[in-house]
Amino acid sequence: ILISTFIAGYILNGRQLKNYDRLLSETGHRTNYAQTYGMPLCMINFGLYGLMILLYMDAVFLLTDGVAFTGPTVGAMFAALTFAVIGQHPKNTWSIFGGYVFLYIIVAVVCALQGRPVPWTLSTQGYINGVAFATGLAPIAGRYGWKAGIAAGAVSAALCTSTGAFHGGFMIFNGGFTAGITALIMVSVLEHHYPHMEVNI
Fold it and tell me: Quick check: 5 and 47 in contact, CB under 8 A?
């Protein structure tokens, strides 16, 4: 699906990637790629962004213990991909995935030093779903840079399994709920310290 969508977009775009670099320079805040760049570039973005997510998932499934592709995993992946037309692309989301990896490395090191088992991995079902919905934090990385993106991803990952106590497990989109809390914290802090800042990503 991802490859065929990319190929179709490439053909419809005159067999070139013209203007895709402009799409990648968008912060993701209040953007509509379909309206600004047209559907062929959106299809190209859908394919490439989807392949990036698929590569991440394949890597964590191979390198860590946890689930493989399940219904919720695939559903969360396509939920993230729906925003390939309005706000998300590989350049403003890779750091969100990096934040999840960063937190996992810290947790693994701390657990190793204390002689305890790691309580979760990057391929635990909740964290796979969480990172897919955490891509909604892409405008933070787009506006403030990849370091802010990694911080946002790490904060979202840290909150991901804690927020269930807030709603008693009745929020099926817990990853999105967590991303909202993360945005509430991160944007307030970033806007206070770096008002109107926009950096290259």
Answer: yes
In a domain, 115, yes or no: yes
Instruction: Report yes or no on 90 lying in a domain.
Output: yes
Give the whole-angstrom CA distance, residue 81 versus residue 138.
12
Whether the model clears a pTM of 0.85, i.e. scores above it, the answer is yes
Read off the pLDDT band of 201 (50, 70, 90).
very low
Q: Does residue 83 register a pLDDT over 60? A: yes
| Mean of pLDDT values over 129-149 | 91
Provide long-range contacts, Cβ within 8 A and 24+ apart, for 177-182. Answer: 178/130, 178/133, 178/134, 179/133, 179/134, 179/136, 179/137, 180/136, 182/134, 182/137, 182/152, 182/155, 182/156
Domains of the chain: total? 1
List the domain range (segments joined by +) for residue 76: 57-193
Instruction: State the pLDDT at residue 196.
Output: 63
In a domain, 18, yes or no: no
Residue 170 has, within 13 A of its CA and on its CB side, a CA count of 3
Q: Is the pLDDT of residue 200 over 60?
A: no
Q: Mean pLDDT throughout 147-164? A: 88
Is residue 146 in some structural domain?
Answer: yes
